[in-house]
TrEMBL record:
Coiled coil: none annotated. Keywords: Hydrolase. The keyword Nucleus does not apply. GO terms for molecular function: hydrolase activity. PANTHER family: L-ASCORBATE-6-PHOSPHATE LACTONASE ULAG-RELATED, UPF0173 METAL-DEPENDENT HYDROLASE MJ1163-RELATED. InterPro entries: Metallo-B-lactamas, RibonucZ/Hydroxyglut_hydro, UPF0173_UPF0282_UlaG_hydrolase. Residues 27-222 form the Metallo-beta-lactamase domain. This is L-ascorbate metabolism protein UlaG (Beta-lactamase superfamily).
Length: 260
């Protein structure tokens, strides 16, 4: 495995939607979910977590920022994850999440960009991008969600989709902020009883998303560990096998990492 450098990307899957991304000397955590297995409150619903995180927050080392796609669902931000936010210098999320959580959370609207200073003095840009948490028109039911693109003049770009079910949105991200070098895509075909729809990308859509982005590598997350995920990593592997983008898939088990 190659050595991690400031020009490479290290991605580690903690479990569910939670991953650690090291880029440009900075460490990011996506959608922190650190509760143990069991029922988890999620708005007016209850979701069932099947597997605990591969690491605790104390084992992550110094974290520079959290990329929180949204705060209203327990499989993207749980009680332990909320506690974790207080230990991190800044969390980027939706404007609604910033209003609800308060101190330490910076709300961003789609296509809004902010800047973090890297250890070497250069800039890393965090650009919020749209996400549709279900079919078009479901925003009022699912609430606002965003994704993110991490980029800098001398860095590969990383797209973190958040809970997005729309290939149209993926195409918009590629159009406005491409070329995208690497992508962390939330899959799993999430569904809940009250909504007859997929709330995240399905396994069969992930190869198409890879082509739309023309990404060199994609790392699926949000595809294991919860009962409402209708698909899993095996189905993702099957969707890529034999395709023209099979070599771009980086499939991690919780606790595993890859250097891209």
């Amino acid at each position: 495995m190659p050595e991690h450098t400031d020009r490479s990307i290290r991605v580690e899957l903690i479990g569910g939607p939670t991953a650690v991304i090291d880029i440009g000397g900075l460490r990011f955590v996506t959608d922190p979910t650190f509760n143990p297995p069991g029922p988890q409150a999620s708005g007016t619903s209850v979701l069932t977590k099947l597997v605990g995180p591969s690491r605790s927050p104390d084992e992550l080392g110094s974290v520079d920022a959290v990329l929180l796609s949204h705060d209203q669902h327990g499989d993207n931000l749980d009680d332990a994850g909320r506690g974790f936010l207080a230990t991190v210098p800044v969390t980027f999320s939706t404007v609604a999440a910033a209003e609800r959580i308060g101190a330490g959370v910076t709300g961003l609207t789609p296509w809004q960009r902010t800047t973090l200073r890297r250890p070497d003095g250069r800039d890393l840009f965090v650009t919020a991008v749209p996400a549709v948490h279900g079919p078009d028109g479901m925003e009022a039911s699912s609430g606002p969600v965003i994704g993110f693109v991490l980029h800098g003049d001398d860095l590969p770009s990383v797209y973190v989709s958040g809970d997005n079910a729309s290939l149209r949105v993926v195409e918009e991200v590629a159009h406005h902020l491409g070329p995208i070098t690497f992508a962390v895509l939330f899959g799993g075909g999430a569904r809940v009883a009250r909504l007859d729809a997929f709330l995240t990308l399905t396994s069969d859509q992930l190869p198409t998303a890879t082509r739309l982005l023309d990404a060199a590598k994609i790392v699926p997350v949000h595809s294991e560990g919860w009962a409402h995920f209708t698909q899993d990593q095996a189905s993702i592997r099957a969707a890529f096998d034999g395709s023209d983008v099979a070599d771009r898939l980086v499939l991690l088990e919780p606790g595993e990492h890859a250097i891209l």
